[in-house]
Write a structure and sequence with these properties.
206 residues, alpha/beta, UDP N-Acetylglucosamine Acyltransferase, domain 1, 7-stranded mixed β-sheet, 5-stranded parallel β-sheet, globular, transferase, galactoside O-acetyltransferase activity, acyltransferase, Mac_dom
């Protein structure tokens, strides 16, 4: 593990078929299993486990169970990070989720990749690239984030998108592959759902 772990975070090829690596990973996944088995009403139990699972956990974070991760300990959470049901983190290297990130159900965030040639894949060759989701991003249901991408702050990724390249800040983007559709602008603060006016009386702090 001491020899392999540095290569997991440099983009270099390494063999993921290591008994020591597997044992370490199973210890991490045991904590995630424990989290997923808790009574859904046991909020204190869930909150107590999150810092044991992840590398960093800000204030007021919650992942709806079940979620799954390859490790957990390479994922970093800012404040107020929320993930709906069935998040999958293929976090063989670092995943960064900024403040106020919202993740819809059935999302996959993957840092891991394998060489194209089958001879290398038979050797369990793997390389990893970090994923960064900056603050205030909303990732819609069923999205897939591929290794190495960054999503800029405040952006919205539409449901079912495959994010294979960086997405800038302050845009709405969707599709396969995910592409920028339009900027987020002032009209988005006064209307929602295709032009319906927003009643500001209930949003004192907006």
């Amino acid at each position: 593990m001491a020899e392999l772990e540095p290569r997991m975070h440099t983009g270099e090829l390494y063999s993921c078929n290591s008994p020591e690596l597997f044992r370490e990973q199973m210890e991490c996944r045991a904590l995630i299993h424990q989290y997923n088995q808790l009574d859904p009403r046991d909020m204190e139990g869930h909150q107590a486990l999150l810092p044991r699972i992840f590398a960093e956990v800000g204030e007021n974070c919650f992942f709806e169970p079940p979620f799954n991760a390859n490790w957990g300990r390479y994922t970093h959470l800012g404040n107020n990070v929320y993930a709906n049901f069935n998040l999958t983190l293929v976090d063989d290297t670092h995943v960064y989720l900024g403040d106020n990130v919202m993740i819809g159900p059935n999302v996959t965030i993957s840092t891991a990749a394998h060489p194209i040639h089958p001879g290398l894949r038979r050797l369990a060759a793997q390389y990893n690239k970090p994923v960064t989701v900056e603050k205030n991003v909303w990732i819609g249901a069923g999205c897939i984030l591929l290794p190495g991408v960054t999503i800029g702050e405040n952006s919205v990724i539409g449901a079912g998108s495959v994010v294979s390249r960086d997405i800038p800040a302050n845009v709405v983007a969707f599709g396969t592959p995910c592409r920028v559709v339009r900027p987020i602008d002032e009209k988005d603060l006064t209307t929602y759902d295709h032009g319906k006016p927003i009643d500001f009386s209930q949003w004192e702090n907006l």
